Amino acid sequence: MGQEFSAVPETTKPENLSERSVSAVADYIKSGKARKVVVLTGAGISTAAGIPDFRSPETGLYANLAALDLEEPEDVFSLPFFKENPKPFYVLAKDLYPGKFHPTISHVFISLLATKGLLYQLFTQNIDCLERAAGVPPSLIVEAHGSFASQRCIDCKTTYPDDKMREHVSRAEVPHCEKCNGLVKPDIVFFHENLPSLFFDRRHMAEEADLVLVLGTSLTVHPFAGLPDLAPVEVPRVLFNMERVGSLGSQADDVLVLGDCDTGVRQLADALGWREELEAEWRKLVGDEEADRQLKGSSKRQVELQDEVSQLVHDVDKVLHVHDTSSGSPSPSPEAQAKKETAPATQQELQQSGPASVEESVETTAGTEEVKLPGA
């Protein structure tokens, strides 16, 4: 079970909750006071699906890419680097593309909120499209860092057919625009790119929430990270995550459920009396075999994720040709060396010049992730 925790002194009484607990949150929802539930998600809600996260210290994709001869591990998701060499991205995209992964019970819980008319807006840092696959209406989703749902030419902006995109990705081949022959890129937000206008158009909805649920994000990438603080101070905020993040836990009606997202969501579903319905909908959607796989111990999933990330990095390494196979030691290519000498970009500069993109797909562990390429 997730561990309930708060940094607020016990003497500070909540304004809208009877106490700082999951059961009190459930009572608040059942009372009818939560009619505009805003949900914020990051990579942590997708790790049980088998999607590698980006920022966790050991299994994170960035940590593993750091072993390669890149100026920054994030370069693979940097627009300038993509323009110079798009192949590494498409090597990764082959294994991260939607269709290979299935929604977790956390995704289905959000869909259930929508079915019951309680979901006001979902803001996600993930690009894996699993919210859509779980049945959350697209009209209620803001994919803050974009997604693999569409793609277009980076030059003339002409959209590219879905079927042809899938064919290219399946072969790890770079697609080119049928109109101008420019590079085609999925509509995910790379470094040096702006967030979708929809994010800014709907950001006010966080201010109108009467309940905020935050699942599996480290809240390190702005402006997404500032969304929880837009809600009125008296509005209950519930964090399902491996660790405390952002300002969560500092207000009287904050509830922290520390642990993996799926465990915390099941705890809330139990308190709401939705558990049987939730489990049935999830198994109907993903099938018993996938459901049982996701229910395996987190330690087993960690080993599988590490193996997958290692293979992904190996594939990228082959594309970059960064190792001198004769000596067995790292040896940067002339192109990579020239890049090091001319590119001043640091991680800080990248984030200043444009919001990070595919990241929340993860952030730190099974409950702390964010743009997820498969997301956060």
TrEMBL record:
The UniProt catalytic activity note for this protein reads: N(6)-acetyl-L-lysyl-[protein] + NAD(+) + H2O = 2''-O-acetyl-ADP-D-ribose + nicotinamide + L-lysyl-[protein]
Single GO MF annotation:
NAD+ binding
Annotated spans, Disordered? 322-376
A single GO CC term, please?
nucleus
Q: Where does NAD(+) bind?
A: 43-47, 53-55, 125-128, 217-218, 241-243, 261
List ligand-binding residues for Zn(2+): 153, 156, 177, 180
Q: Which UniProt keywords apply?
A: Metal-binding, NAD, Transferase, Zinc
**Compositional bias (Polar residues) spans?**
344-355
Q: What is this protein called?
A: NAD-dependent protein deacetylase
Per the UniProt entry, what species is this protein from, by scientific name? Sordaria brevicollis
